[in-house]
Amino acid sequence: MTIHGSVWLATTTMPEYDVLRSDLDADVVVVGGGLIGLTTAFYLQEQGADVVVLEGARIGARTSGNTTGKVTSQHGAMYAGLFDRHGADTARQYADANQSAVEEVAEVVQRLGIDCELTRTPAYLYSTGTADLRREAEVAAALGLPAHSVDSQELGLPLAATEVVRFDDQLQLHPGRYLAGLAEAFTRAGGRIFDNSRVVELDAGDDRIRAETSSGPAVRAAHAILATLLPIGLTGGYFARTRPHQSHGIALHLPVQAPAGMTISADEPVRSTRPWPGGGPNGLIVVGGDHETGDRTDTSSAFQSLIDWVGSLWNFRAQPEYRWSAQDYSTPDQLPYVGKAPGSPILVATGMHKWGLSNGTVAAGILRDAVLGKDNTWSGLYDAGRIGDATAVANLVKDNLKVGKEFAAGHLRRLLGPGLDHIEIGEGGLFDTDDGTIGAYRDRDGNLHTVVPVCSHLGCPLRWNQGDATWDCNCHGSRFAPNGAVLDGPATTPLKSPTPD
């Protein structure tokens, strides 16, 4: 039987923390208890700051706890394109930043003694088509990265690769245990974490920023950091400057020993693999099925495509033990936004392009130094206020035209079910009732959950995601549980109920 949930969270004893019950004062309030939030908070607490972390659910429960667990400077077939588009200096800075992050994570794990299955292993990029990976290897090596073109036999996957690039001495780890270790080190140093304390508003006063939670209590601090995947609400306009993407993962056992290295394809559909130490020598993690959040009504097909791919390679009937989804945001110029939001004292980090363990570690250092008033080598590269080049501007226009069409057309496009009485267990979607069209889902216990299927962020129509049992917004990536609770922002408030309380 397949467990619907992250293999990392299922195999981690994550520390639990109380809800924020009264107002507090601190030097820094960090909103978000994922990789970026916890790393930044730990760094600042080590430097003597009084830091409070506010997490809307449980620490590590969303994207950071659903990552692949690769810590690598190898980010797909990226460097040749980055070089051609932005020039050698920018490409070299990005390479240096992420390779430094690989070593920084290794240092943190060793210094704190975190038991997170940290392993040095090569990261392979391969093509089974016509991708020019030889030039990718040459550019990456010229930028100072440990990249080499190698024979396809090194890959370890039973497929016909035409070109293969190997990045040496990269890392893989158990992200759940790494996050737990960071949280425990932070609290040992005097930091405070509050679970289930969702921030709904940040009010910047004359000298303090007030982070108000949904239950009422707030934290007042001199500095506020939004480490929430995408900044909440309208902060910085990042909802209009990024696009949300989902990927899907499975953990399973092969009939043979799993390949020892990490791999990712340069061709579509992208397939990313790594060993699964917890699954024994035959354990394998496979991630792929990328698509924009909210553009599919049933992601079950994405999971099945991963299962079919593994089964076809090793000629067996694959059955995953775990399956899960993760979300991240991309920027129009391929570089994350980290630093002070335009026109605001609030610090942000977003747009990690699914390489959050390395990019997120870089972001944490930039945020730490911004609070401490120190220069950071990579703050200019990741400038949170940049507009970008002409291509980036064109992509922004294109993306926002799409959002406008989704907003206008989505309210007219209704896939109506026959009525609430006919909803089967495990089924959800849009249904026509006497009170109008509502969103409904019947859970495994037979309980019916109903919502108004309109995003609480900016009013975009929501789509039911049958594979994940979530309400997804294709405009800006907010996601909601069947009962309307916020799972991912920029939305901060739950969905409305179709009936009065």
- How far apart lie the N and C ends? 38 Å
Uncertain spans: 410-416
Helix vs. strand class: alpha+beta
Mean pLDDT: 91
Oligomerization status of the protein chains: single chain
- H/I helix tally: 9
Shape: globular
Approximately how much beta-strand content do the residues carry?
A: 25-35%
CATH superfamily of the domain at 13-66 and 176-241 and 333-388: FAD/NAD(P)-binding domain
In helices, the fraction of residues equals: 25-40%
CATH domain fold name of the domain at 13-66 and 176-241 and 333-388: FAD/NAD(P)-binding domain
Radius of gyration (Å): 22 Å
Q: What's the CATH C level of the domain at 13-66 and 176-241 and 333-388?
A: Alpha Beta
Characterize the biggest β-sheet.
10 strands, mixed
The tally of beta strands, per DSSP, is 26
CATH architecture of the domain at 13-66 and 176-241 and 333-388: 3-Layer(bba) Sandwich
Keywords: 2Fe-2S, Disulfide bond, Iron, Iron-sulfur, Metal-binding
GO molecular function, one term: metal ion binding
Pfam families: DAO (PF01266), Rieske (PF00355)
Organism: Kribbella capetownensis
Features:
ten-stranded mixed sheet, Rieske Iron-sulfur Protein, FAD/NAD(P)-binding domain, eight-stranded mixed sheet, 501 residues, alpha+beta, metal-binding, 25% helix, 9 helices
Q: If you had to describe this structure to a student in words, what would you say it looks like?
A:
This protein has 501 residues and is of the alpha+beta class. Among the domains are: 176 residues, FAD/NAD(P)-binding domain (3-Layer(bba) Sandwich), CATH 3.50.50; 112 residues, Rieske Iron-sulfur Protein (3-layer Sandwich), CATH 2.102.10. It has 9 helices and 26 strands. The strands form 4 sheets. Strands 1, 4, 5, 6, 7, 12, 13, 14, 15 and 16 form a 10-stranded mixed sheet that branches. Strands 2, 3, 8, 9, 10, 11, 17 and 18 form an 8-stranded mixed sheet that branches. A 4-stranded mixed sheet has the order 19-20-21-22, with no helix packed on it. A hairpin with a 5-residue loop joins strand 25 and strand 26. Helix 3 packs across helix 4. The chain is globular and about 60 Å long. It starts with a strand and ends in a 13-residue tail after the last strand.
